[in-house]
Amino acid sequence: MSSIAISGFKTRTIATDRSDSLRPLALAAPLLLLLAFSFGAPIVALLSRAVYEPTIANALPRTVAALRVDSARGVPGEPVFGAFAADLKEAQAAGAIYEFAKTLNTRLPGARSQVLRVARLAGQDRGVTKEAIIKAAPLLGEDQSWSAIRTGTNRFTSFFLLSAFDLRWTDQGTIGAVPAHQAVFTRVFGRTFLIATLVTLATLALAFPLAYVMTNVRPVIAGIVLVLVLLPFWTSILVRTAAWTVILQKYGLLNDLLLWLGVTSERLELMYSRTGLIIAMTHIQLPFTLLPIYSVMRAVQTSQLRAAQSLGARPFTVFRRVYLPQVMPGVLAGCLLTFILCLGYYITPVLIGGASDQLISNFIANYVNVELNWEMAAALSFVLLVSTLGLYVTMTRYLGLDLFKMG
Amino acid sequence: MLLSPYPTTTERIRVAALWIWCVLVLIFLVVPIFVPVPLSFNSGSFFTFPLAGISIRWYEVVLGTPRWRAAIGNSLLVGAGATVLATFLGTLTAIGLSDPKFPGRRFVVPLLISPLIVPVVVTAVGTYLFYARIGLANTYAGIILAHTVLASPFVVVTVGASLSGFDRNLMRATSILGAKPLTGFLRVMLPLILPGVLSGAAFAFVTSFDEVVVVQFLANAQQRTLPLEMFTGLREQLSPAITAAATLMMGLSILLLIVANLLGRRSRQSGSALAE
């Protein structure tokens, strides 16, 4: 287009050239803006809660100032306690005391009721002394409580992210493990990764032979099988989970079948069990593993396999040396996709898993809905998101799996 | 083709085993999703076979009680809103992306797809936190916007696929013939990619109609959708009404997606026919 050299047109052509790359961008702009507003901003807002926690600093301006003067480590002197009482009195008046007490409680378990007691004491307006405060709140007489308050007055915090890995700052200023009874999250992440791995392997064991057969039968049959694979793929996860809750009941279809076949002699408890959860997740994820494998297998040249065979390779050698290397990208892509999606499972574990089968997403939802601890939910989201996106980038970069070409 | 021309006995056994395995896998894939269907016509109130008798009482519950009806109404409202928005914005974006001059496609495409990859709980919790701050939580508008985000990748992908067979010279021809860009779009491009657009719209509707996690965080008691009603029902007390609702949802999804796939196929065919 820019080769048009008639002088009158030239300036216009250049102008069009510049707007040529802007116009397609302008077409995409509305959706990109919506994504920024309704997807990007929410996620950034959530993740920022993991590292930015101003409640304690906002509630204790005088204490912060007094602590700066007080050089003692551990329990500070009388002026800090005076400032603390004044801060609490004001927070009480402003209605901010409950939020403060709750936030402090996440760092200092048991502090909530004691802080509220001190606030009531301070509200009575008699000269509140250090002794009286410690009497009302014994926690405040301990060194470690004050180191928790000192770190809490810092608006930017690594507390929640460290907690997500069951770590904390020790009194000596190093990073160490939290006490064993508080360590939950490494176990939850471990469980999430374990279940994702098991489901991925199960889907692979089911999908690989099926995909292989689909590429080796008449197109009509392959088409019918493809429809049968896509049918559950199109049905919503909720509906399929509902179906499994019906099937896995103690007097449900699967137990009927197992008894009839004589595999078991009594009815198994499959609902609220890990076995049931893995069966249901495998069913839901199977098409995700299968479709990339199938699309890669279809492209394999059968003439190469025949060539290997005619050169004297045994069937297993042909499979291992010629076939497998060619379908490996599809296998990896399908497995990685299933693994990534499994990490984020929420509905199925809630409905089918037991109390000890809840995955990381369930803990995030629980911290928001029940515990109202947004910071911990944010920190767990952060770790989950980083693992998921890391794997997704690996998948698109190194395996070249294009979600555009699926489905 | 699985067997060589002169199969040995071990080969026959191996292939037979492979076939049996595949049939079992297919049974595992397909049978579970149809289990709720006969149970939804059960006249008893248990989930066990054989059925106590045939009745449509659970459909009367789902289609007749105010609670379920309100949920169906909400689902249709949110689904329609999200479908219109996602289809409009997604189609524009796909047209933009189909232009070879689109800047930074390598980064923009993964961004557009990311709502499918980010764990839905993270999206839901983040949206709830952010919407609560700006007053969009517990509003239909908020739920529709959130569903639009989740549905838009499907529209971008399906419309993008039908545009890959679209000859851009046609648009040059319209502008040479004096048509304004909008006229060219409405009279030439849109009719050709319409099957793709409609198929994207069907995907978008199904995405919204099946979505439960975002709704769980964003909706108040009056805004409960059909999937949310089902989810709470499954959590609290299992009633056969759920199998009826599941059957209805499944029927609608399958119907829409068959339509979408037929349209999608047609759009690819017409696209490639034009390209030839």
Outline the structure in words.
The complex is a heterodimer of chains A (407) and B (276). With 407 residues, chain A is mainly alpha-helical. Helices cover 72% and strands 1% of the residues of chain A. Chain A starts with 6 loop residues before the first helix and ends in a 9-residue tail after the last helix. Residues 1-15 and 403-407 of chain A have low confidence and may be disordered. Chain B is 78% helix and 0% strand. The mean pLDDT of chain B is 87. Chains A and B meet through helix 1, helix 10, helix 11, helix 12 and helix 14 of A and helix 1, helix 4, helix 5, helix 6 and helix 7 of B.
SSE layout and pairing:
The complex is a heterodimer of chains A (407) and B (276).
Chain A: H1 7-51, H2 55-59, H3 61-69, H4 78-94, H5 97-107, H6 111-123, H7 130-136, H8 143-152, H9 159-164, E1 167-169, E2 175-177, H10 185-215, H11 219-234, H12 237-247, H13 253-261, H14 274-298, H15 302-310, H16 315-343, H17 347-352, H18 360-369, H19 374-398
Antiparallel strand pairs in A: 1-2
Helix pairs in contact in A: 1-19, 3-4, 4-6, 5-6, 10-14, 10-16, 11-14, 14-16, 15-16, 16-19, 18-19
Chain B: H1 9-34, H2 36-40, H3 57-64, H4 66-98, H5 105-117, H6 120-134, H7 140-163, H8 169-176, H9 181-210, H10 213-218, H11 226-236, H12 241-275
Helix pairs in contact in B: 3-4, 3-12, 4-7, 4-9, 4-11, 5-7, 7-9, 7-12, 8-9, 9-12
